[in-house]
Amino acid sequence: MDDQITGSTAAEIADSVRGLRERGTLRPGDALPPVRELAVRLGINRNTAVAAYRQLAGAGLVISRGRAGTLIAGAESVAQEGLADTVLHDIASGNPDPSLIPDPTPALSRIVGRPVLYGEPVIDAALEAWTREWMHADLHRDDLTICVTSGAVDAVERLLAQALMRDDAVALEDPCFLASIHTVRLGGYRAVPVPVDDEGMTVEGLRAALDAGVRAIISTPRAQNPTGVTLTSERAAALREVLADHPYVLIIEDDHFSLLSPHAYATLIGPQHRRYALVRSVSKFLGPDMCLALAATDPTTAERLALRLSPGTTWVSHLLQRLAHAQLTDASARTQISTASAHYAERNAAFAAALETHGISTSSVDGLSLWVRLAAPARTTAERLMRRGWLARTGDEFCIDESSPASHHLRLTVHDLSDADAARLIDDLVAAQR
């Protein structure tokens, strides 16, 4: 196979590999020759071989495994959030409790109005005014501009696309939210992992990522998924100090748990930072099917983002925007959101306390799930739990570098378990550790 790869330019080499893949000579999982070896054999500069592999990676035809080499990509499925089609008791979904999502029926009659036509403002005026007040209370920036997108993932994808080119580096928390990992990979960007500890993104990790040339940072200020960690004010101040010398690096804060979090919002966005976006989805408290997120950005980012949100197929329905505004300003709906916040905190805290009595700890302080530390490898424990009727999610799925050592964490969604089921799960988890 090595002898069949030909070409003297990056484009020719990439086209040669693509042809071998299409003819079946190269199959998913096959390793390409190391860059240095290929360069020597073809008599080309090493940088030309590197550029060819980057083209292939950007097109999704190969996967870089670092020291493990470059492999031909397959059509294998990737981990996704949500319910699984299974007979097992699903504690892996990461879903909110549907009974705690406000019923939109009372608000529907209040949102009917004249039709919105092409060329009108993309964001509903009432929702924009409410959001500006909400965001300004936390960011204290007079330059912020409000945008609306079809959910947080859509916002992140568009924000990266307006600021980056293929192969640009993006700093991601490690372990990381699944959708952020997929968005960065599918966009052709390079993920640079920044470790997360009990206070949030580490200062040393962020400094190393900036030294590596990242052009964007995706951070979760509250209820980081999967760890449940919330950024402390002390850590946020230390991170802002590091970022003070990098005002044009795009900071994207995904504050997905905003109204449900009992913790104060702390931010990486300093008062002089030039490129930023605070994104708040309504999915966790108004329901995933709302598919709506609000973003507060600097004017330049907002202008670029607007080009990707022009009226037409890319706008967010004004009926949906009016419905979100009607619920967000409704006293009974806000009371139910507060009830949901207390429910998640209380149920997770009770489960974590019960685990502690068995010597099993969790770093989670916020969110819909718990990040449980294990003595045994997570995959081994998950397999044993499966035999006992439980479907759990291992920490391996949230690792940015797939060649990382085996995870010793499970992410468990337990807030909707009855007391009896919670007790049974704890017993089974303890037994699976033996």
From TrEMBL:
Domain HTH gntR-type stretches: 7-75
Keywords tagged on the record: Aminotransferase, DNA-binding, Pyridoxal phosphate, Transcription, Transcription regulation, Transferase
GO MF, any single term: transaminase activity
CDD domains associated with the record: AAT_like (cd00609), WHTH_GntR (cd07377)
PROSITE patterns: HTH_GNTR (PS50949)
Pfam families: Aminotran_1_2, GntR
SUPFAM superfamilies: PLP-dependent transferases, Winged helix' DNA-binding domain
Family, similarity comment: In the C-terminal section; belongs to the class-I pyridoxal-phosphate-dependent aminotransferase family.
Annotated protein name in UniProt: Aminotransferase class I/II-fold pyridoxal phosphate-dependent enzyme
Organism: Microbacterium esteraromaticum
